[in-house]
Write a structure and sequence with these properties.
Blueprint (H helix, E strand, L loop, with lengths): L3 E5 L5 H11 L6 H10 L4 E6 L2 E15 L4 E13 L8 H15 L4 E7 L3 H9 L3 E6 L9 E7 L1
Bound molecules: coenzyme A.
Coenzyme A (COA) binds next to strand 4, helix 3 and helix 4.
């Protein structure tokens, strides 16, 4: 069993996060995007460490919308990024990060959480399905290379 510590992101994690990001995605995020989200939602940017080394991270935003039917404010969690170092995959790191971020979102008042995932990304689709996320829609040509995304969501 991995001894995982989950904590909020700190700026000194950036180099390591960029390394994991570049190995994990065809269109990696820029350093500016990571800095933006660390400033704007510190509780929404978590890292997982093993023996003091960052092995994964998750970023979520809290979005506030007006529901025009009920004229009430609805808060949604939006999972924006999640990646785990290749060497540490399939050992529960992403699951642990998801548990923590879902709890933070619930505590911040979110009643639902949603995300987009490439239709070819079976690992991530399986992971989210395990957490009871359901596919709600297909977003055609959502990514820069025109691949479709599934919009998945779940109630909190
Ligand atoms: C998707 C990703 C975050 C999963 O991280 P992880 O730490 O390996 O995930 P976990 O160990 O918590 O796995 C939980 C469950 O997800 C599913 N899963 C994870 N990796 C899988 C794979 N390669 N193939 C099939 N199912 C997989 C399984 O159901 C797994 O449960 P199990 O191991 O008991 O079968 C990781 O593969 C990754 O970083 N991929 C590249 C970046 C990415 O695609 N991010 C998601 C963007 S939406």
């Amino acid at each position: 069993m991995l001894k995982l510590v989950v904590r909020e992101f700190s700026l000194s994690d950036l180099d390591r996060i960029l390394e994991i990001e570049r190995k994990s995605f065809r269109n990696p995020w820029s350093i500016r995007l990571f800095k933006f989200f660390s400033k704007n939602s510190p509780r929404g940017f978590l890292v997982a460490e093993v023996d003091g080394k960052v092995v994964g991270y998750v970023i979520a935003a809290l979005e506030v919308k007006l529901d025009f039917r009920s004229l009430s404010i609805v808060k949604y969690g939006h999972i924006l990024n999640l990646a785990v170092d290749e060497k540490y995959r399939r050992r529960g790191v992403a699951s642990t990060l998801l548990q923590h971020i879902l709890r933070n979102l619930r505590e911040s008042g979110a009643s639902k959480v949603y995300l987009e995932v490439r239709v070819s990304n079976l690992a991530a689709i399986n992971l989210y399905s395990k957490f009871n996320f359901k596919v709600k829609r297909v977003l055609r040509a959502y990514y820069p290379d025109n691949e479709d995304a599934y919009l998945m969501s779940k109630d909190l």
